[in-house]
């Protein structure tokens, strides 16, 4: 199991191979992509920032929790930092399990907890030239 | 009064116009220090939505500050 912050493009196929286990009959993956709009504003790019050390530590806890709560074989998560263009993969989660139910549930758990707890921030670059930090009152 | 180092991330860094500074403070806890800095820089997020780390470990807002602590202020997270 591994949770990584990366500044280079995510390679989903390579990560998927790392999930293969002979006891696994199901694999569920999730990709979060950069989209061109948010809350009614046209978005041209996203810039992600993280505290990599704490993010990877908190992320490893989330994966361990998923393993404890759901009957999975293994799980991986990778999150990009830096400036990303529309359509790029910002976050990738993959889970393998004996059966699909646990794989779906664990994948959902990992992405939801990652978004809520891991110190990663997102700055939107709007078509208007303005920028804004998502979720923050301080802009 | 104790001396600590404050570090700012993302929106806090931009608002403060710096990524770290040495401070001499009467604040007894990380939450009190955040209160001082919020007044100084206009941080508008409530502590309940933010996180704090002390010496590179996530910490409770009410933990007592000690001289020499490095206090990392994290605005509301937004991964994914």
Report on this structure:
- The complex is a heterodimer of chains A (139) and B (80).
- Chain A is built from three helices and nine strands.
- In chain A, helix 2 packs antiparallel against helix 3.
- By secondary structure, chain A is an alpha+beta fold.
- In chain A, strands 3, 4, 6, 8 and 9 form a five-stranded antiparallel β-sheet that branches. A four-stranded mixed β-sheet of chain A has the order 1-5-7-2.
- Chain B is α+β, with helices and mostly antiparallel strands and 80 residues long.
- Chain B has a single domain (2-74), classed as Roll (Ubiquitin-like (UB roll)), CATH 3.10.20.
- Chain B is built from two helices and five strands.
- Chain B has helices at 10-16, 30-41; strands at residues 2-8, 20-25, 51-54, 57-59, 70-74.
- In chain B, a hairpin with a 2-residue loop joins strand 3 and strand 4.
- The interface between A and B is medium-sized, with 29 and 24 residues.
């Amino acid at each position: 199991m591994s949770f990584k912050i990366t500044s280079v493009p995510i390679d989903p196929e390579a990560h998927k191979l790392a999930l293969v286990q002979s006891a696994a009959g199901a694999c569920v993956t999730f990709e979060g992509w950069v989209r061109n709009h948010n809350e009614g504003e046209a978005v041209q790019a996203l810039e992600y920032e993280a505290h990599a050390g704490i993010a990877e530590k908190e992320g490893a806890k989330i994966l361990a929790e998923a393993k404890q709560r759901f009957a999975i074989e293994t799980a991986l998560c990778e999150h990009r930092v830096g400036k990303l263009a529309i359509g790029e993969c910002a976050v990738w989660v993959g889970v393998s399990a004996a059966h699909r139910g646990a794989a779906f549930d664990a994948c959902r758990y990992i992405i939801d907890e990652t978004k809520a707890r891991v110190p990663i921030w997102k700055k939107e670059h709007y078509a208007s030239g303005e920028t804004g930090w998502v979720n923050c009152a301080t802009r | 009064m104790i001396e600590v180092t404050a570090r700012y991330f993302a929106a806090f860094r931009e608002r403060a116009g710096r990524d770290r500074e040495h401070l001499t403070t009467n604040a007894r806890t990380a939450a009190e220090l955040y209160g001082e800095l919020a007044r100084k820089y206009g941080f508008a997020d409530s502590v309940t939505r933010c996180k704090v780390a002390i010496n590179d470990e996530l910490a409770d807002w009410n933990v007592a500050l000690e001289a020499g602590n490095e206090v990392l202020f994290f605005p509301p997270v937004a991964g994914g």
